[in-house]
Amino acid sequence: MDISIVVPLFNEEESLPELCSWIDRVMKENNFSYEVLLIDDGSKDKSWEVIEKLKSDNSNLKGIKFRRNYGKSAALNVAFAKTKGNVVITMDADLQDSPDEIPELYKMIMSDGYDLVSGWKQKRYDPITKTLPTKLFNWAARKASGIYLHDFNCGLKSYKKTVVKSIEVHGEMHRYIPVMAKWAGFSNIGEKVVIHQARKYGVTKFGVERFVNGFLDLMTITFISRFGKKPMHLFGVIGIIMFFLGFGLFTYIGGYKLYAMFNSIKAENIANMSGFYIALTSMIIGVQLFLAGFIGELISRNAQDRNNYQIEKEI
């Protein structure tokens, strides 16, 4: 099979018939063999009834319905496990992503050799309250990940089949699939300017909180990708630095006090000096961070996937 198209959705009953008809037309025009996986993420409207009707008219469609709303990452993770196409393309169900982009996204994977291609909505039809935080978020994601994409959160992406079978999307990590792909060894990541269409039906399902969650998830994925297998390299180093800074300050304070005592110089009581408590606190925090790193190493070394390495070829 050439292409698997994954469409997570939540309360999109109005857009689904038009979207599926559009996809089918593009696939037939380009003679692609394909499947469409519609993942109903606990919709409260009639989305599932629409999917059932569409399925009866088109055998290329497949539907999965969650009992409740789990989020986009869960929908993608379940769909990725079931895809059969050589190229997997994800897109949103709200008609803001154009299926006309599919042939070029397919070509960039199969002919140009990219592992993953991310869409870039260079011209957006969103209010400034959404575009401005998005720009800030993408800037932070580029700096933290070292992957220079303009639009990490674009739902329109294409992947080699091996990429989606090698990653696990959970929590709200769908924004950072390129980071997870790079972490798994798929570093040939491209970008394509895509058309962004104004929303035709309904309202957006994402609020301001997604940007807060996005930055928290960015910190999580950055830590896991860099220190998930070696937590001592972070906590241990910071702990040792803090301990010796505190110990150095304590040595200076104690040494001066002893010098003053032996030379009959009046000196303030150590217990009355703020530096003493700063030094003591620094040493305690340093020891705690070192122990956190040590415990993290024990957990990491006993994890079931500690030796789960991605093997590309074997002869």
Briefly say what this structure is:
This protein has 315 residues and is α/β, with parallel strands linked by helices. It has helices at 16-29, 47-57, 72-82, 102-110, 128-145, 161-164, 177-183, 209-227, 232-262, 274-301, and strands at residues 3-9, 34-40, 61-65, 87-90, 116-120, 157-160, 189-193. The mean pLDDT is 86.
The CATH topology of the largest domain is Spore Coat Polysaccharide Biosynthesis Protein SpsA, Chain A
> Could you list the spans in which at least 5 consecutive residues all have pLDDT below 50?
none
Shape: elongated
CATH level 1 name of the largest domain: Alpha Beta
Report the order of strands and helices: EHEHEHEHEHEHHEHHH
In words, what does this structure look like?
The protein contains ten helices and seven strands. It has helices at residues 16-29, 47-57, 72-82, 102-110, 128-145, 161-164, 177-183, 209-227, 232-262, 274-301; strands at residues 3-9, 34-40, 61-65, 87-90, 116-120, 157-160, 189-193. The protein is an alpha/beta fold and 315 residues long. The mean pLDDT is 86. The two termini are 26 Å apart. The chain has two domains: 3-227, Spore Coat Polysaccharide Biosynthesis Protein SpsA, Chain A (Alpha-Beta Complex); 232-301.
